[in-house]
Design brief:
Elements (H helix, E strand, L loop, with lengths): L4 E2 L22 E5 L3 H12 L3 E6 L12 E4 L5 H8 L4 E4 L6 H9 L8 H8 L1 H10 L7 E4 L2 H11 L4 E4 L9 E2 L4 H13 L4 E4 L6 E9 L5 E3 L3 E6 L2 E7 L6 H18 L3 E9 L5 E7 L9 H4 L4 H9 L13 E8 L9 H11 L4 E4 L9 E9 L2 H17 L11
Parallel strand pairs: 2-3, 2-5, 3-4
Antiparallel strand pairs: 1-11, 6-9, 7-8, 7-9, 10-11, 10-12, 10-14, 12-13, 13-16, 14-15, 16-18, 17-18
Length: 416
C-alpha cells in the first residue's frame, strides 16, 4: 500500500510568518523531556539535520544523557527543571507522556513552544480522557467505565464478562498498570489495593483479538501530515516484542481505514509530532483503538532502516514545523525485533555478541540503547529488511535472541 499523506488546505507546507520565531542564522535546539532510548535515537536524527537536542534526564547515565552534549539533570515532575530545560530552545517535546499537564500549561503560558501541546498530549497521558474523547468522536473503542470504588470493577465485569481489564488511568506502559481479573473476587481485590494506593482506575472489556496493529503518523503545526504503512505488533508479557511492516495479510481497505483514522485523530486532537495509534483487530476484521502514544514509538522503530524517512527524523521535522519526509518503505518487508534483557545476563559481553552477529548476519541493523541488562528490559532492537515475511521475521528474532542471550536458536556455534 502506498503510504497515505495528508496536507492542510494550503497547497504547499512552505515556511510562513511566525513559524520559527528565532534567528534564522542559528540552527534550532529542540528540548526533549526524558533521557531514555527514544531521546537517544531522536538525538541521532537531529545531528543529521544540523540541530541540537537538549534532554531533561534524571540521571547522567540515562541513554540519551550518555550521547547528548546538552543535558539538564532533573525530574519531569519539577516545573523549575522543565523551565531550565526550555530556556533558549525552539521547541519542547517528549520521549514519554508523564509530565504533569498543569506544568505544560504553565510553560505554554510563559511562551514555551510545547509540541505536542498539552491539550493534545492529555489524551495520551490520561486513558479515561482518551476513551471519552474517542467515544465522542465516534471512534470504535472497547466498552469502558471509570472505577471509583471496588464495586464499580465488579459491576463492570459482571456486565461485560470475565476476565475484564483494569487499567491505571495514568502512568502505565509495557504491561505495567494493567490487570486482568478473572472473577469478581479478583477484581474487588485489585481495585481496592490500587485505589487505596491513590491510583485512578478504569475498567475495559477484554477484546477477542486476531492480532494487534499500529498506525503510525506524524503531523506538523502547519497541518501537514503523513502516515507510514500499518504494522503488526507481536506482544509478549504485555510488551512489544516484534513489529512486522507492513502488517501481513491485512486487507487494503482495512489498512487504508486504519491510516485514515490515525490521520483524522491527529487532526481532531491537535497532535503534533509522531503519533502511534495502537489498534485491536478482531477475528471479524473490526478495528478498535487501544491506546495513543504522541511521540516516537516502539512500533515505529522499523522505519529507522525500512523507510525513506524514519520516525525520529520525522518527529524532529514535525515539532520544528519543517515539511515532512517521505514515508515510503525501502523493502517489501521490514521486521523489528526487540533485544530484551535475559533472565540472567550472559557471560559473553555485549560487544562480543555484536561481533558474532555481524559476522553471521551482516545485513542486520542493530540499535543498542546504552542500558544495563536486566530481565525483560528493552536494551536495543534489530531491523532486518527483505522480501519474504517468514524468512525476515525468523532472521530478526534469531538476531535479537542472540543479542539477548548469546544463544543461537538454531544451535549454531560461533566458535566452530
Amino acid at each position: 500500500m502506498t503510504p497515505l499523506r495528508a496536507v492542510s488546505e494550503h497547497s504547499t507546507p512552505a515556511v510562513h510568518p511566525g513559524t520559527r520565531p528565532f534567528d534564522s542564522s542559528v540552527m534550532p535546539t529542540v528540548t526533549m523531556i526524558g533521557g531514555g532510548q527514544l531521546a537517544r535515537m531522536t538525538h541521532q536524527a537531529a545531528i543529521a539535520l544540523g540541530q541540537r537536542l537538549r534532554v531533561l534526564a534524571e540521571r547522567p547515565d540515562d541513554p540519551a544523557a550518555q550521547v547528548t552534549p546538552e543535558v539538564v539533570l532533573g525530574s519531569h515532575t519539577d516545573l523549575a527543571a522543565l523551565r531550565k530545560a526550555a530556556v533558549g530552545s525552539h521547541a519542547m517535546t517528549f520521549d514519554h507522556e508523564h509530565v504533569p499537564t498543569e506544568h505544560l500549561e504553565a510553560l505554554v503560558a510563559e511562551g514555551v513552544n510545547v509540541q505536542p501541546p498539552p491539550g493534545a498530549l492529555v489524551y495520551a497521558q490520561d486513558k479515561l480522557a482518551m476513551r471519552r474523547r474517542l467515544a465522542e468522536l465516534g471512534v470504535p473503542v472497547p466498552a469502558f467505565a471509570p472505577v471509583r470504588e471496588p464495586a464499580d470493577a465488579v459491576a463492570f465485569g459482571e456486565e461485560h464478562g470475565w476476565p475484564c481489564v483494569l487499567k491505571a488511568v495514568r502512568g502505565g506502559y509495557d504491561g505495567r498498570g494493567v490487570w486482568m481479573p478473572e472473577s469478581a473476587a479478583q477484581a474487588e481485590s485489585i481495585a481496592r489495593e490500587q485505589l487505596d494506593k491513590g491510583a485512578t482506575l478504569l475498567a475495559e472489556q477484554r477484546v477477542t483479538l486476531k492480532r494487534e496493529l499500529s498506525a503510525m503518523v506524524a503531523r506538523s503545526p502547519f497541518g501537514q501530515a503523513a502516515a507510514w504503512p500499518v504494522v503488526e505488533t507481536v506482544q509478549r508479557k504485555g510488551q512489544c516484542a516484534v513489529v512486522i511492516a507492513p502488517a501481513p495479510d491485512l486487507a487494503e481497505e482495512s489498512a487504508t481505514a486504519a491510516s485514515v483514522l490515525a490521520l483524522r485523530l491527529a487532526a481532531e486532537l491537535g497532535v503534533t509530532g509522531a503519533m502511534a495509534v495502537e489498534l485491536f483487530e478482531t477475528p471479524a476484521g473490526e478495528l478498535l483503538v487501544n491506546e495513543l502514544a504522541m511521540r516516537p514509538h516502539n512500533s515505529g522503530h522499523w522505519s529507522m532502516d525500512g523507510a525513506v524517512t524514519g520516525q525520529f527524523e520525522q518527529h524532529v521535522r514535525a515539532v520544528l514545523d519543517y515539511p515532512l519526509g517521505d514515508t515510503t518503505p525501502l523493502a517489501p518487508v521490514t521486521v523489528m525485533a526487540n533485544i530484551l534483557g535475559a533472565p540472567e545476563a550472559p557471560a559473553m559481553s555485549m560487544d562480543e555478541r555484536l561481533h558474532h552477529l555481524f559476522a553471521r548476519m551482516p545485513e542486520a541493523r542493530v540499535h543498542l540503547y546504552g542500558k544495563g541488562e536486566r530481565p525483560d528490559r528493552k536494551i536495543g532492537h534489530v531491523n532486518i529488511l527483505g522480501d519474504d515475511v517468514a524468512e525476515v521475521r525468523e532472521k530478526a528474532e534469531r538476531a535479537a535472541q542472540w543479542m539477548s542471550r548469546a544463544v543461537w536458536t538454531d544451535g549454531w556455534d560461533p566458535h566452530e
